[in-house]
Amino acid sequence: MDTLAFTTGKGGTAYELPRYRVTKGGIEPTGEATRIEFVRGSGSAADPVTSADGILVETLLNVIIRDLEHKHARVPAEEGERTLNHLRSALDALNARTYRRQMRGLLGTYQSERSG
Questions:
Q1: Which domain holds residue 8?
Q2: What is the pTM of this model?
Q3: Calpha distance 106→5 (Å, rounded)
Q4: How many CB atoms lie within 10 A of CB 54?
Q5: Do the domain assignments include residue 36?
Q6: Rounded Cα–Cα distance for residues 79 and 85 (Å)
Q7: Inside any domain, residue 37
Q8: Of the candidates 4, 67, 107, 114, which lies 20 to 30 Å from 75 by C-alpha distance?
Q9: Other CB atoms closer than 10 Å to residue 74's CB: what's the count?
Q10: Residues 40 and 50 reside in one and the same domain
Q11: Tens-digit pLDDT profile for residues 36-82
C-alpha cells in the first residue's frame, strides 16, 4: 500500500487522494478517492494565470495540524510532537509570507517580491 500516492489533475490545482478504512487487519484502501482543489488566479491582469476556485494551502495545513493534535492527545509520541512542531512552523512561515505580500500590495498576484 503506497500511502504517499495521489493523482494530479486540472493544471496542478486538483488532486485525487485515496481513501482508507481501518479494519481488523489494519488500514486498507477503499478504492475511492477524495478530491482536493486549490485556489489559483491573480488579481492582476498582467499575470497570465488560469483561475480556479478552491481551498488555501494554509487552511489545509491547519486542518492537518488540528487532526494530528487530536490524535497526539490520545496517543502521544515524540514523532507526533516533532511533526506538529514542523507543521506549525510551516504554517507560521506561510502566514508571514501572506502578511508581507499584503503589506507590499502583492497579495493575490504572481508578481515576485524580488522583481522591480
A1: 1-55
A2: 0.85
A3: 34
A4: 18
A5: yes
A6: 10
A7: yes
A8: 4
A9: 6
A10: yes
A11: 999 998 888 788 888 889 999 999 999 999 999 999 999 999 999 99
From edge to edge, which strands make up the β-sheet containing 14-23? 7-9, 14-23, 26-37
Cell numbers that stand for 5 in this block: 500516492
Give the 3-state DSSP-derived string for the chain, with helices as H, strands as E and coil as C: CCCCCCEEEHHHCEEEEEEEEEECCEEEEEEEEEEEEECECCCCCCCCCCCECCECHHHHHHHHHHHHHHHHHHCCCHHHHHHHHHHHHHHHHHHHHHHHHHHCCCCCCCCCCCCC
pLDDT recorded at residue 1: 67
What letter represents residue 33's amino acid? A
Q: Give the pLDDT band of residue 115 (cuts 50, 70, 90).
A: low
Identify whether residues 13 and 63 lie together within a single domain. no
Residues 71 and 89 in one domain: yes
